[in-house]
Amino acid sequence: MVAGKTREERWSLAGVTALVTGGSKGIGYVTCHEFNFFYLVYVHIVIKVYVYVVCDIMRLGVGDFRHAIVEELAEFGARVHTCSRNAAELEACRQRWEEKGLQVTVSVCDVSVPADRESLMATVKANFGGKLDILVNNAGQSLFKLAAESTSDDYTRIMATNLESCFHLSQLAHPLLLASGIGGSVVHISSIAGFIGLPALAIYSMTKGAMNQLTRSLATEWAHDGIRVNCIAPGGVKTDISSDKTIDPELVKKEMARVPMGRIAEPEEVASMVAFLCMPAASYMTGQVICIDGGRTIT
Question: What Pfam families does this protein map onto (predicted)?
């Protein structure tokens, strides 16, 4: 609550603890680099072009988006723990954050594996003295594949990574959030794909739509515990598209024409909303799914 707090206290995360999953890579990076170009020749030309545009626009450069979230929270004074499947990339990130003087610890975790999720939360509990103030369910994986071509393995993998991990980690974090004593905050990272229809994103979109509803359900259940649960649904987030030689700039322009603001987001524009939702200044906000998309979902 903000009652009795100074302006500085309302807009600060000094001393709080946070877990941000998937802190070493950006949304869609792995999937888009693994996306098989030759698969596209079997797709209708309109869908082919559109999927290719979405794939590149939604892709983030290595770590930009998730680095931004970790760094934003840490720069506001939070002690942050983050995780990734790739130990080498994670260590490189840790060194970078250490050089910046940020309080960030790391551990290896594949959030699609239940045992890894339990081990992660045990590490967080030990690191933060049995308490946790903020959980950001940020890890996720995309799948650009037509519904008719998707397999049961595709479905299982994406559901486990995007949705099951979000639900299970929230469950595991609940007692630690309760123990924080200051009112915990959970933020899920969804996508505008959970609101609008996009070709070749059926399974991915299902996980994000379900995540949006999970946000509302948990917010309703946990409000009496003093735990707020909100969600952010980004559209395209900017990285190195201008230097990517594999995409036609004209295709980017066509997609951008559907965005009223005429551009895609900077990583910091998403990270700053995450930080706000975790601050005392947002203490009366819960159950909200906020689109950060330059108006894409209203056109």
Answer: adh_short_C2
